[in-house]
Amino acid sequence: MHASLTADRALGLDGAFRHPDSREALSATTASAQEADQRRAAWMAAAQAGDRRAYERVLADSLPLIRAAARRQGVPVDSIDDVVQETLLTVHRVRHTYDPTRSYDAWITAIASRRAIDALRSHGRRDRRELHDEQVLDMQSDHADATRDAEREQEARRLRAAIATLPPGQREAVEQLALRERSLAEAAQHTGRNTGALKVNLHRALKALRNRIHGDS
Amino acid sequence: MSEPRNHHALIDALGAELVPVRRLPPPWRRAVAWLLVVAALAALLFAHYGDGGMLRRWEGAPDLAWAGLGAVLTTITAAWTAFALGVPGRSARWAWLPVAPALLWIGASGLGCLRDWIAPGTILAGPHQPIGCLQFIIAFSVPLSALLIWLLRRACPLRPVLAAVMIGLASAAASASLLEICHEFDAAASDLLTHALAVVLVIGINAAMGGRLLRAR
Question: How far is residue A69's CA from residue B23's CA, in Å, rounded to a whole number?
Fold first, then answer.
């Protein structure tokens, strides 16, 4: 009961059902959602012109929309933050595709849904690989272990080569955060960069490495 | 469950990188730009071959005229749809738009096979002539597809394979429309089969390669 009331409140519907004329209240809710959409559309239009404050506002205001889209696609709770970050990075790359005469909410929801599907596919691939590895472990002989070691060594070489081709900022983020397993604060102190820039560089580096090693399927 | 991340650090970092962007022109404007190139090619072919042969065939076999009209409408609608699918938030249902004109194109072409009379002033295609049609459609489709992919380079097709199918359909239909200007043969079954094979090849190659090219984001 409490959960459903909370959900209704989150959707702005709790007032709708208490109102004597629920249809009227529902249309008021729709109007307020449209207003919010228009407000975000205006911020994004300003961001396209280079207004940093409007950009930060519209991204912050978009977080619930992105989370909702990820949940609708069935993304597990512990992966929703990944989808949020990937969506924010995609929005940054494709912000010029937004047409301010159209709905901002529909635009960002479409991007978030796509990133959510990508996340689900990548989880599926990883799960299949992990299951496969377990079966292999049960069945393989020592000879096969040696072959696997050689393959792993080859993969590690490919990974090192791919890291070496990254732009300096991204390579630094991978070395500091992934290879040396430093915390964001330690890495920031070490490199003199702020933590946000390190996170952006790490995300871009991981995406570039994924594309280079597994292809962009 | 992992600890929720502070997305505001990423938003700050993206805000710090913000620069003004040039908005993507609306789909119709980019579609018109591409269609103008197709129209210029048509003008060149008319200048070389004239319209007499085409009009004579249409007079004798009106279903060929309907097929030509279907191909032209398929070109226009598929080109617009390819650009519309490059804008996040546009419904994927727009992909149904070229279906009706494509059915007119295919259906009217197919009627040619059922006729037992031949359009005046035309000859039945010999065994080698359909190969010329295949070469014509593919030779025109390749640059037209490349141009469409280039015009979509700044877009963000969230369904890259569907967008690539639309690119293939638009290019193949445009090439078939251009072929109509200088096509000397009536719609014999072998000729139609060759056209169908060319169209399927163009769409298939686009779906396989265009999908990869468009997936870069």
Answer: 25
